[in-house]
Amino acid sequence: xxxxxxxxxxxxxxxxxxxxxxxxxxxxxxxxxxxxxxxxxxxxxxxxxxxxxxxxxxxxxxxxxxxxxxxxxxxxxxxxxxxxxxxxxxxxxxxxxxxxxxxxxxxxxxxxxxxxxxxxxxxxxxxxxxxxxxxxxxxxxxxxxxxxxxxxxxxxxxxxxxxxxxxxxxxxxxxxxxxxxxxxxxxxxxxxxxxxxxxxxxxxxxxxxxxxxxxxxxxxxxxxxxxxxxxxxxxxxxxxxxxxxxxxxxxxxxxxxxxxxxxxxxxxxxxxxxxxxxxxxxxxxxxxxxxxxxxxxxxxxxxxxxxxxxxxxxxxxxxxxxxxxxxxxxxxxxxx
Length: 336
Fold this sequence. Notes:
Elements: E1 3-6, E2 15-20, E3 27-36, E4 44-49, E5 55-59, E6 64-69, E7 74-79, E8 83-90, E9 95-101, E10 107-111, E11 118-122, E12 130-135, E13 141-145, E14 150-155, E15 158-163, E16 169-175, E17 181-186, E18 194-198, E19 211-215, E20 227-229, E21 232-237, E22 242-247, E23 252-257, E24 265-270, E25 275-280, E26 285-290, E27 295-300, E28 308-314, E29 319-324, E30 329-335
Antiparallel strand pairs: 1-7, 2-3, 3-30, 4-5, 5-6, 6-7, 8-9, 9-10, 10-11, 12-13, 13-14, 14-15, 16-17, 17-18, 18-19, 20-21, 21-22, 22-23, 24-25, 25-26, 26-27, 28-29, 29-30
């Protein structure tokens, strides 16, 4: 049963950060608000926003799907069976999809916002967890497993599992304008970092057809979830505190170092102004890469040690939403 909770005014913290951009002569302010999640120590991980502006997030240790209503400043929580990780909202059918950890055997699920009911399904894979996910324009739900050497597609017709060409630890999923699915992968101890591209038109379930791998220019790096934007694939290099891009048309890489060393960049998102937003888990900041200037601006969070993780941009309202895994909060950032 879903539980609804109101966020009290004391749980909202304001932070004004004045930033002077090199490309502009006037100062710009960022307003950061934080909202306490009702379940203590819930460890929020991933976040998305629906077309009505409702914010959806997963509670890994709370074993719940959470919804935050920004207009009413209220939370609603929906218990699930296994630890949820990734979450996406499907505008085509008004459903919320998510992946789950289940003692080494991943599951995935769907939540019906109108009724609060939840459906959960096993992946059928012998090992691994269901971790990152994305939706394609047709509403197909794609997800991978951290160590299952698989990419899966779920829809009304059922589930299809595709086999990655080599074993590794995967992170992130994104779709480019041509319909290709991208993810990052590393071998043990973060060696052999590479991007994986999957062409669904060439893929066959149970095989590795349609996959190709693009090695990075370094032999060892901790890379995470990519996004496709502006004809490139963007991804964080955690241990180097960089945002990197790969251009499939030219086969070239470009890197943008964050001002803070050892920032622990985790997740990235893009707004309608083509600015790359990202969480700095170790530095306890939100970062923004302005592609017009190539400059990165960092915004400190009000709560110390909050460990921001998942991030999403509500492009209809120009709001950056993120979760604070250690702070047990939902964060909201707007520029003024």
